Amino acid sequence: MDAARAVNRFFPGPLLALETSCDETAAAVLVGADIRSNVVASQVDMHRKWGGVVPEAAARAHVEALLPVVDQALGDAGISLADVEAIAVTNRPGLVGALSVGVSAAKALSLWGGAAMIGIHHIEGHVCSVLAAEPDLTPPFLALVVSGGHTELVRVAAWGDYVVVGETLDDAAGEAFDKGARVLGLGYPGGVAIQSAASGGDALRYALPHALPDQRSNFSFSGLKTAVARLVEREGEALNLHDAAASLQQAIVEVLVGKTLATVEALSLETIVVAGGVSANLALRDRIEREAARQGRRVVLPPLSLCTDNAAMIGLAGSLRLMRGERSGYDLDVASSSPL
Ligand code: KG4
Ligand code: ZN
Questions:
Q1: Which long-range contacts (CB under 8 A, 24 or more apart) does 50-57 make?
Q2: Model-wide pTM > 0.85
Q3: Atom 7 (ligand 1) nearest CA
């Protein structure tokens, strides 16, 4: 695709994006494909006390943080609210109270300034985060979306045309990291904690289960938590934390990479996209790139800064939809679960 076409697929005017589906209050400003600002206020310190996200507390924290975050995003981009021509907001899926804060703010801001508004599916946002790395990326491709709430293989036939071809039957990959980290006493959130504890550890030291070997595209991670708990019990004081973290990380990564490569091959696609919080994992990034290259396939990854929840990815998804003429009305609703 030539550069002009890549530019034309993005909404040209200043676009404000909001993301409040879980525990990050986020706002970003985009002009075309250019991310002019990307502000994320994390509630992680608050939720750490309870070892996970408390929905009511998350919603109240968004109420407090959202307008200061928007103000900072506009300031960082060097524009004012009156310059905003469109607003993209996550409206599904997620915590209903948390989503409502972002959607209500988007409606109020749109009513005030007359900016167009578009509601965005959070997972579509994650998939579109790779456009920050490669603005002219063109489907078809297979996307592995791995976050705290989702583990899905999505066949992307065109932007906006998504078919889920595989998913987790129980826990998400991010949950497997988070629950494993809790059992190992490594804290919350678990993904980064496991990744750093795993460095220098021996991934072959402890054997952990690889679930559903007979299913090409579906995942199951709930058995891992139990297996790690049993390992902790069995080894007691003798447990080597680095080796345990490395073994857990490897068990998750091997399953993700193995099933993704089997699926992309079965679908005869050339390109793999990996997105969502777990795509920040360096072992996953490294392994999928190496194994895909061996198959002659290409992997597109989001920049590390856009793997976990952020508003820039919502802006990228919104930008494409706005350019296709889509708009949401003031009846835009929120949903806790919603098919992609
Ligand atoms: O996409 P995200 O920010 O939020 C959801 O939509 O769920 O993903 C958060 C998840 C958490 O489970 C977190 O532990 C995981 O992504 N995560 C990681 C890493 N960074 C974040 N998992 C493994 N390795 C990492 N470096
Ligand atoms: Zn997410």
A1: 51/182, 51/188, 52/178, 52/188, 53/22, 53/23, 53/95, 55/95, 55/96, 55/97, 55/98, 56/97
A2: yes
A3: 148
